[in-house]
Design brief:
Layout: H1 6-13, H2 17-25, E1 32-33, E2 39-40, H3 43-59, H4 63-74, H5 76-89, H6 115-143
Antiparallel strand pairs: 1-2
Helix pairs in contact: 4-5
Length: 150
Amino acid sequence: MESATVHTAAQTTGWSVRMLHYLDAAGLVSPARSASGYRLYGEREIGQLRALRQLLADHDLRPADLQVALRLRSEHALRHAVDHWLEATAGSVHSDGDPALAPAEPNRQLSASEPAISWLRFEQDKHSRALQASSTTQADSHLTPTKETA
């Protein structure tokens, strides 16, 4: 097989062109480049894309999950920091079985500026906004006449 353009690779593998660009930028599947800078997908890259699609489906993963795994393999300081954090929090579990956001010292309270609380607040705000947008969209759809009701 000769090298395929990004459009041909997308059609062949079922990925979108935009996703192929993302996978390349993330370092997950990096095709060769032509002299003018176009991505050229050979048999190896097409095989990688097909295998990646299967891996993600089989294990309910997203490409970003593999990007983190790739970073953990290549960035030793990051891997050490994550391992240290996981070891420090492994024994910290609530009575209901959910992982605790509390620090390793049981009597110490997290301040609002600490990363765990900042992250939690960010995630809660993000989900609240998504729920509000969803409920607004659903409410608006009941008000908008359709062809059948108009």
